[in-house]
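S.,

Sequence below, as promised.
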Amino acid sequence: MGQDAVENGASVSLASSSDDRHPPSNIVDGDSRTFWVSTGLYPQEFIIELDQPYDISEVKLIACNIKQLSISKCETQDADVFSSAVQDIKFGPEANGQLIDQTFKASFQAKHVKFTILEGWSDFCAVYKVGLIS
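The prediction came back faster than expected:
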């Protein structure tokens, strides 16, 4: 198994919503008990900024209430132009109110990775952790 690029000082550079009790920074804090929660309506998105560009081979996600998700990438220093990396990830009814722990095969290089939650099983969703394995 490769190295998790998130563990090398990643940050959440943007999130479409924020709750002071469950901020976006919880996604990359290394604590499996903390999470970011959306504040309603879809789509929701967040961008993880890595310390340098990485060749990503797997994406790990621990989340709740996500029904459909897409992942985009940006290789440059400035997070200005994103292109599709992994699209149309769908979660079945098992994600409705339940914590899911999924790993997706991937093949892309990125300095910034955007997660767009297109649809949820509820008005709110939560993301506990993201791993970007190189």
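The chain has one domain: 5-133.

Coffee later?
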